[in-house]
Design goal:
Length: 134
């Protein structure tokens, strides 16, 4: 028999932190992509950011697995996290291949999806918090 557990209201969870880190890394990548157009430092920053983003995507997968396993909840977040890791891999390949016509729109899509995921996680946290008041 498994019981479903949920985090205490008001607590910051590992998946929320991982999602926020991934979203921030994607935003940093967008900024450094713009810097590529005007600065010689843009490439080095964008390259370093790509490694951070890839690590953040892996961290998100780990967070989704660790959040799912003890509580016995839905494995759907693992699918989302794995999808982001696949998209990050495709982004790296497209960046190395110097295909900006595919690399830039995919990066924009990833930022939009990650921002949506983060906003849903934050709003769910507030709904949980509001629902727990006497």
């Amino acid at each position: 028999m498994t019981t479903q557990t949920s985090p205490a209201p008001g607590r910051v969870t590992f998946p929320l932190v991982a999602t926020a880190l991934q979203t921030l890394a994607l935003f940093f990548q967008a900024v450094t992509a713009g810097m590529l157009l005007s600065s010689s430092h843009g490439y080095a920053l964008h390259d370093a950011g790509s490694k951070v983003l890839y690590g953040a995507s892996m961290l998100y997968v780990l967070a989704a697995i660790l959040a799912w396993r003890p509580g016995g909840g839905s494995p759907r977040p693992i699918l989302y996290a794995s999808g982001f890791l696949v998209l990050a891999t495709v982004q790296v390949v497209l960046g190395i291949a110097h295909l900006p016509s595919l690399h830039v729109p995919l990066g924009t899509l990833m930022f939009a999806l990650s921002t949506l995921l983060l906003s849903q996680a934050i709003s769910a946290r507030f709904r949980t918090r509001a629902g727990s008041r006497p």
